[in-house]
Amino acid sequence: MAGRRDTGTLLNALLLLNLTYVGRMSAEAVQYGEESGGSCTPTQQRSILEAVTGCEARETLLALREHMPNVSDVIQVIPDFASVARCGGSCDLYKHRCIPTETRMKRVDVMVVLSRFPRVQTETQCGYVEVEEHVGCRCDCPVKSRHCRPDDQYYEGSSCRCICLDQARRNECIISGMLWDPVNCLCVCPKASWRVCSTGYIFDFTRTCQCVPTSTTASMGLLVAVIVLVTCLLVSVAGGFFMYRRQTGLFKEAAKTRRRNTAVAGADVAKHLTEYDLVKEEENTS
Questions:
Q1: Alpha-carbon distance 132 to 86, whole Å?
Q2: Mean pLDDT over residues 21-46, rounded?
Q3: Which of 2, 86, 112, 132 would disulfide-bridge 60, Cβ 3.0–4.6 Å?
Q4: End position of a domain, from candidates 142, 174, 206
Q5: Both 106 and 154 in a single domain?
Q6: Virtual torsion, Cα 215, 216, 218, 222, nearest 10 deg
Q7: Contact 57, 107 (CB under 8 A)
């Protein structure tokens, strides 16, 4: 009886935690036996719960070619797969994932057959490939607050996701028949309207939902660049004129030098006038 009560309590907890997820599942996703018609017996419940695979590190096959930095001239990798420990398994909360808490690098010795273009012959070399191996695991949110953009998103820990701040814009997007992109917080065209454009055209995902000439996009970028350049030029001219009128900034030292030169010239003129007056006075006296 105690074991049956524990099983029932665990089942109720799982049902409460996964109610939203289960509600999204379609009836066609599960097949039912003819004898049960979809109902669960206590024995079935106990058997299913005992068979749940927990979150832990287990051996997983990895393709070594995908972990090599340069494979353009590699014909064959021996071995081409390696068994490494990776986290996996079920979590109680459907938004949680089995993620690693501690990792280490594992070295796998390999032999590669290389092509030596344009020569026909091949070359065999031995080396190693380093792959990541998981040491510890736990069930947790795969998305953290650090993954959210602070300017237009906030983190909701209960659902393990980043939510866009501008919900009014999201509502307007959905009402207009467009598709809201929750990752980039953008209103984009419905997927049914997406198409591959011919050469010289690009699909406009955010406005017209049609193929537009690439020159239009380039012209808009060029126009913006010209406007920015002209604005900067006008600001520079206005600033220079203001500094010239106020004799500040770059013109401050020039003004000081000009005043100094004027004072020196005035002193020289006064000196010459004084000497001239003395000479005249001596001539009149004589």
A1: 9
A2: 66
A3: 86
A4: 142
A5: no
A6: 120
A7: no
